[in-house]
User: Fold these one by one.
Assistant:
Number 1:
Amino acid sequence: MRSAIGGRRAWVAASTHPGEEEAVAEAHRQAASANPDLLTIVVPRHPDRAAEAAAVFGARGLPVGRRSADGRPTAGTAVFVGDTLGELGLWYRLGELAFVGGSLAPRGGHNPIEPARLGCPVLLGPHLAHVEELAAPLLAAGGARTVADASALAEAVAGLLADPAGLAAMSHRALAVAEAGG
């Protein structure tokens, strides 16, 4: 998979729910202005939503691929939907940062320690009721950041991708928290 991505910048939007893909599309659009070959990997919380998620990006003119149909992203793929089970760790390893869904949509959030264990800095929306105890140490250490809405997600993704040193520091802090037991 790494060879399919090549030298492209990539980030992950994991465990997304309805309404969050629109925010991810805006984040991709904004970050791609500085990184024209940017790859956004989207992993819907429920794989049976893959067609729905892909349609959100396709409707915005973004070339979309799906793991279940295409296997790997091509050079022309802007958004790749990871719609197979058991591969979330793969996507986190390939991404430079991760947005963990269920947190922009009022779902209560999903586990932010999973990407942190793989050294992936984390972005979270404001809805963290189900994961507050996991998110708090990451946020306190600077291994994770919260974003209030779609616009803030777009700014955070673009800003972090434009700041390799800041992104690396955030990655180290996320991993340190995960290794310390969250």
Number 2:
Amino acid sequence: MSKYLKYIIPVLIIAVGVVSMLFLSSLKKKTPKQNTVVTSKIVITEEVKLHSVVSHINLFGRAATSEPVMLNSEVNGVLENGDIDFKVSENFSKGDLICKVDDRQAKYSLNSAKSDLLNALANVLPEIKVNFEDEYTIWQEYFNNCKFDSKIAPLPKVTNDKIHLYLSRFNVYKFYYNVLNLEIILDKHYFYAPFDGSIIKTNLQVGSSVRIGGQIGEIINTADMEISVPVETKNISWIDKDKNVIIKSKEFSKEWTGIISRIGSNIDTRTQTVDLYIKVNQEKNNPLLSGVFVEVEFQGKAAENAFAIPPMALYEESYVYLVKDGRLQKQTVRLVRRESDRVIIADGIKTGDIMVVEALQGVASGMPARSKSNMSGEN
């Protein structure tokens, strides 16, 4: 009996332990199950108001004169000052003498030719007086008005063939046209300003020898500035040529206005852009300098029945989220235009819709949501 007792006792001890553990476990209070609480996601929203959305296009370019002029000499001589000092950055007004080439020889040659013409007229006048007394007064008056210090006047109109013959025989026509030719040569010694502008380059200094074909300098029209900006082909259809543009310069912290003067007809195959030219409305007390880098703001054409939102609120270029009946609703829309700080959308939305205007992650259509701007739960 004692032989089996050493096996029975351990088994009894284990059985008693299991029964005790089960009894104690039954005494523990069951933890009540908690009800799952669904929380609404708080999102930033904006009420949709469909209207005419004006597009904006911001481009960059450099200001330059639309009329740069090279001063090239057609005569020989020594360079002299005109009404201003012939130096870089000197300003001038239309009609001012910018510079000139020594004109003494040209004047002497012209006066010599005028002397030949006067001599020819003096010889023909007696013949006209004798044979055409009624025409004599006209030619005598023309002779008296021929001065060495003024340009030659046009010859009187000849209707009589015999007078025409006399004039030809005494070389009046020959000397007259020689005078006209020398007057043209004399004019080439002077460089008069065709516009209000400034000297931007001087190839020769006053006192230097000038040769035919030599470049003297370069001038620009400061009253007629132009800006060339490259426009992407996708933006061309949005450009409104009838609207003014705003021109800004960070270097000078100033603004100007301008108008679109023309749009290029060729596309740059490398950049797929078209050059657009802006004529600047210059102001005397606020001039735009040539070479300044500027930003040009265009007010483009409008998208009708559209709405503008931040780019991050549009997903996969095709849908947005609305808050409807306290839940997110995925809504397909049409992308009309993308700009740097906004996108313009249309179709699929209507005035009064509550649209999410922030970027959402890990959400799905049907998820509870509340507007951040309306914490009361009204959507």
Number 3:
Amino acid sequence: MSQSRKTLEPHNAIILSIREDYSSVEELKQLLSTLQVQVMEMFYQKRSEPDSRYYFGLGKIEKLKELIALTNADLVVVDDEITPLQVKNLEKELGVTVKDRTQIIIDIFADHATTEEGKLQVELASLQYQLPRLVGQGRELSRLGGGIGTRGPGEQELEEKRRRIRERIRIIKQKLMQIEKNRTQQRKMRLQSDLPMVSVVGYTNAGKSSLIKALSDDDILVADKLFSTLAPVIRRVKTPNGRVVLFKDTVGFIKNVPHTLIKAFESTLEEILYSNLIVVVVDISDENFNEKLRSSLAALEKLGANHLPRLLVFNKIDRVSPHVLKELSAAYPESIFISALYKTGFQELLKRVCDEIKKNECEDLFAVKLRDLPLLMKEKEKITITEQVYQEDMVVLRVRGRPGILRRLKQIAGGMNS
């Protein structure tokens, strides 16, 4: 069973929330904007717990009906994950489509998935979201048909649907396992190349893709939309000392990520664990950047990446005043301030990247015959020659690099083990 996603058709929406979490609602508004849905109003009811039947209380539902008529809204989006019963009851009372935050995020991922792996991951997340929401619906349909004490036609139909979804989930997982095997092989080859890997992570729309595009002068999709990057992208970046570093783009983090999406993209995110350095990018122009930074760091901790060295990079400094920059520089003295748009601060960023990578390198002396020198120089993008002394038909080189590349160089010329 191949799943095709229905396009989100409504264009005017009202957001519902029972928590006074302004940043979460604003983020949902941005998510809907990414799907070209216009938010007409944001509707609150302060509650400690959602109503089990309607999410909101019935009194608020009546006011919501009036607001829908007034704004001509054709979509209601709940800033939460709601139950099938709540969806059914709300749609019956309001007469419009009702979706929750999880469904909106899955819709965005489905729109932006371009690779086979990405499409499979999104479909898996969608099916895993649907499956538990089918439980009990068959009995309800059977009761409507008059069945008592037996498995009615509605329940049989739902059981068949559950069976098809489980089978499709099994097939998708098999395909993803094969893709993971291929990725493992590619990772092995990449590690053998001895080029350092820098993973660029951060909240969605922080400017990660813009940064890598500017550093590498390569063509990468850059869009002012949430989750414009789903598939990992790797680009070669030449540093001022002539070395080459691999920079990897990653899927953006977000608050309250649906569990189904976390599980579906788990293998992709785990690639971060094979990095030599993590660059955490933060949109400094975002008034909620502190909260989004905390969410990003929490995601890295949950992933198990706390042991990896990291650099904190504040992006979009062109959008803030010098006064703000001065205050943040004092608050985050070890951070780097850049503008990916204008390539400001790149020299400092690349210097700090090189300094971090250098911490895991060592030096060795090599006595190389002049005729063999070109063989060694083929690896020049992976090493730094700190000293060279010519002696008749030989040259003695002091070379700094990662242990793997130094071992391979010994096959070309004898190491003198300084």
Number 4:
Amino acid sequence: QLAVAISGVFIFYVLHDALQERMFRQDGFRFGWFMTLVGILVVSVCAFAFEWGAPPDPTIVSKENMQTIRYCVVGLAVCLATSQGTGSAALNYVHYPVKVAFKSSKLVPTMIFGILLTRKTFSYLEYGAALLMCASLAGLSLADRRASSEEEAKNQPLGCALLLTAVFADSLVPNLQEKCLKELKYPVGRMIVYSNAGCAALVLLYCSATGELSMAVKWCLEHTEGSLFLVLQACTSYLGLRCYLVVVKELSGVAGVITTSLRKVVTLALSFVLFEKPFTPGHALSFAALGAGVGLATYARQVK
């Protein structure tokens, strides 16, 4: 079962990433928020079918805590919508490896929030990992800008800004989940369903307000194959998540981090192999720094 779960993490997430990059190479597809909406809707339906579970025990979850739980779930929905929506929309302006690099550097905003909000302390290893990640992101952005066309280089700052927003929003998610599950004792299944449903509602509202929903639906009606890719990508995301949770449960959280980190290495390699894009010595040095940072962060977490 564990071998199947680890294989599933690689297969489903790599397939998800390949399909996502493939979508933005489809003629006329520039609908990152709509892509997020489809993914969240599929996850919400699957979560309701498999994760719903029993209502909270009133002897464990008090009425006083329910109001705090509602705030936490709303916060989760906002953070998930912001993280996933801006992360997908950034692919209109940057290459996929840049997105993977930014998403791999979640330790940096997590440390910033920890220092500012909770006065949390970190080890020298974690500070070293954060510095390596920051250096890799700066180097990768510069290398990608130099190797891109004039039009792509002009749009890259906007893509990086969207990715920064995605990473900062994503770093808040584990803190809210931990408060909801561990401190307030709310059932995990209900938290997943409500937070994803709220996220879907927010993304739907945004897509409707900006007009992206009508344009994306029109595009899907004209491109049947692209519509299939969208749904398949969302399904692989949920299946990859389920496999990841099995790895964490049967081994440890560190094992889950190591597995997903190795999966990202495979994603980066395949992205350059399957989809033509520039690769320079600057890219190589930046990815090496990123790998060292992720490895050092994983080691620091294991030591802690």
